[in-house]
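Entry 14. Structure prediction run on the chain below.
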Amino acid sequence: MQDLRLVIFDCDGVLVDSETISNGVLARLLSAEGLPTTLAQARRDYQGLLLGEVFERAGQKLGRALPEDLPSRFESERAEVFRRELEPVPGAGEVVEQVAAAGVAVCVASQGKLEKTRLSLELTGLRSLFPDRVLFSAWNVPRGKPHPDLFLQAAAEMGVEPAHCVVVEDTPSGVTAGVSAGMRVYGYAADSDEDALRRAGARTFDLLEQLPELLALILPPEPCAHRRSQGNPGCR
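Output returned:
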């Protein structure tokens, strides 16, 4: 990928292992409001949506509007659990550093608010890799994912044409947004529906550590037989 200039990372589920936490809190709150919801159902029905869209859709299922303070209660409870339990996706920091070391710019484009992204990155030790100027939120564009607005804004602010961008996503709506923006999209499928990501237009992979090699930023290890032929007797 000699024309690669920018890698745009989603945050939740790609850099930080937050989806189970967030959807667990959501399922608990919706169930308490009279809409029985499991973790699996929350992930299936709401993951990847803007917060307002989540509670609008849930209210439609329930048949009545949910309490006005429910989004703020959700954000507060989620932040509390984040502070206790949030971890980075394995290899996230190393992968971002490898991409940057190859001379490719990096940024984060998330459905969540900027303050949530900052908190998530701080709690997982990734904040130093992403200064404020490379953080982008769907709350600051006319339309969130699956529309392309967020990724197009990120590319424009970073000074890179869409054709020279790669998006790393873990939801079909995010993949759709990246494809609609005219970018190449890689679907991180370790904890997502791989078939759905692929149908949306992503090239899928299972380990975040694979990304630099997939982007041809590092060379794959040579076959052992070749290394033995070059005088490496320790290769087995």
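The chain has a mean pLDDT of 92.
Filed with the rest of this week's runs.
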